[in-house]
Amino acid sequence: MRPKPHYVVIKKDAETNEAIYCTKEPFIKARVIVIRWLVSFWLEPKPHTGPHIPGMEGEVLPKNIQRAAASLVSREESKNDNADKTDRTTEPEQSHSNTSTLTEREPSSSSLCSIDEEHLTDIEIVRRVFSSKRSNVNFVTEIFRQAFLLPICEAAAMRKVVKVYQEWIQQEEKPLFMQEPEEIVITSSDLPCIENVTDHDISMEEGEKREEENGTNTADHVRNSSWAKNGSYQGALHNASEEATEQNIRAGTQAVLQVFIINSSNIFLLEPANEIKNLLDEHTDMCKRILNIYRYMVVQVSMDKKTWEQMLLVLLRVTESVLKMPSQAFLQFQGKKNMTLAGRLAGPLFQTLIVAWIKANLNVYISRELWDDLLSVLSSLTYWEELATEWSLTMETLTKVLARNLYSLDLSDLPLDKLSEQKQKKHKGKGVGHEFQKVSVDKSFSRGWSRD
C-alpha cells in the first residue's frame, strides 16, 4: 500500500460549511493542470448552443444578457455578410488590372496540402499530433499514469482520465495506437546509398591486393577497415529500424488494456483516509468506477492470455492489499464496515475476482501457480462474510449451469414449481400467481457469465 498523504484543511465550502481537505505537496496544482489540459483533447466537448461571450466561459448568465449577446452576434454577422457582398461586386473591376495574373489566383502548394485538413477541428489536430509518434503516445500514457498517483483529494482529475480510458475501451472505432500493429518494413530509401559503399569496398580490395603483392599488407589494417565498413552499415540499419519503430505506433488493444489494468490499480493501493468522510466517499467512488471497467472488460472485451493473467494478478493483489488486516483491527470495525474503504469494497471486490476467474478459465488456460495464489489469498480472508456470500452465489450459479448442460434442466423453472403455481392460481384466482414467476437468467454481474 502507498502511504496515506498528509491531508490538511485548505478551505470551507461556502454553502455547506464543510471542511475541504487536500495536501500541500509541491507542484500538485501544476500536475493537475497538465493532466486536465491533456484530458481536454480526448474527451468530447459538450455542445454549446448559447452565444459565445469572451471571458465568460463556464458561467451561467441571466436571460436578458444572453438575449443582448445574441442580438449583438446577429448584427455582427449581418455586417460581415454586407462586407462579403461589396467584395464580390468590386472583384470584377480588379480583375482587369494589369497586375492581376493567373498565377496569383492559383492556390499555393502549401494551401493545397492543407485542403484536406481544413475540416478538422483543433481537438482533432492535437489528437493527430499526439498519435503521430510512439514517443508522443508514451507521453500521453505517462501523464495519465501520474493521474492515478494523485492524492484522493484530486479525484476530479482522476475521474476525467478514467472517462477517457472508458471511452477508448468501449468505443468501436479505436484510436490509432489501439489498432493492431503492422509489420515494420525497412525500404531501400531508409538505408545509405549501396553503390557508394560498394565502390569504396572495391577500391579498398584493390589496394589490399597491391599491398599483398608488395608485401606490406598487415592484418590489423584489414581488420580495422572491415570493422569500420560493417559498423557504419549496421549503424545505418539500426537507425532505420529505430525510426520505423518510432513511426509505427500501433500497439494493439491488448497492450493498452494491460497498461490500464496496471496503472489504475494504484487507486486501490493508496492507503485510505477512513477518518475523513468526504475523502472516503471519493475514494470509494473512484474504486467502484475502476471495478466497473474491469467488469466490462471481463464480460464484453476479447482478451488474450497475457491480458487475462494480468487482470487476475492485479485483482488478487488489490483484494489482498485492501481487505487483509489484523484481527484486532477487523474486530474494531465490526458493525462499522461502512466507515472503512475495505468494508465498502469487500462485496464488489470478491464478486469481481470470482467472476473474472471463471470467465478467464472459460477463455484461456490458467496456470497452476495462479490457482495456488487464489487459494492462498482467499484462505487468508475467510473472516469476511462477503466472501462466503459471493462464493455461495457462485456455487449456485455453477450448479444451474451444470444442470442445464448435462440434464437439459432449468433449475429456475422446475416442473413441480409449475404445478404449485397452477394450484395457487386455482385457489386464489387469476393474476395472483405472478409473484411465483422466476426469471431464468439473472442479469447481475455475478451470474451474467453463465449466459455463454
TrEMBL record:
Keyword terms:
Phosphoprotein
Identify a single GO molecular function assigned to this protein.
Answer: GTPase activator activity
Keyword Phosphoprotein applies: yes
Residue span of region Disordered: 71-113, 205-226, 422-452
Mark out the compositionally biased spans (Polar residues): 95-113, 215-226
Question: What domain of life does the UniProt record list for this protein's source?
Answer: Eukaryota
Domain Ral GTPase-activating protein subunit alpha/beta N-terminal: from-to ranges: 280-408
- CC per GO annotation: nucleus
Q: Which InterPro entries match?
A: RGPA/RALGAPB_N (IPR046859), Tuberin/Ral-act_asu (IPR027107)
**Compositional bias (Basic and acidic residues):** 74-94, 432-452
Keyword Phosphoprotein attached: yes
The protein's name in its UniProt record:
cDNA FLJ12926 fis, clone NT2RP2004732, weakly similar to NEUROFILAMENT TRIPLET M PROTEIN
- What phylogenetic lineage does the species belong to? Eukaryota, Metazoa, Chordata, Craniata, Vertebrata
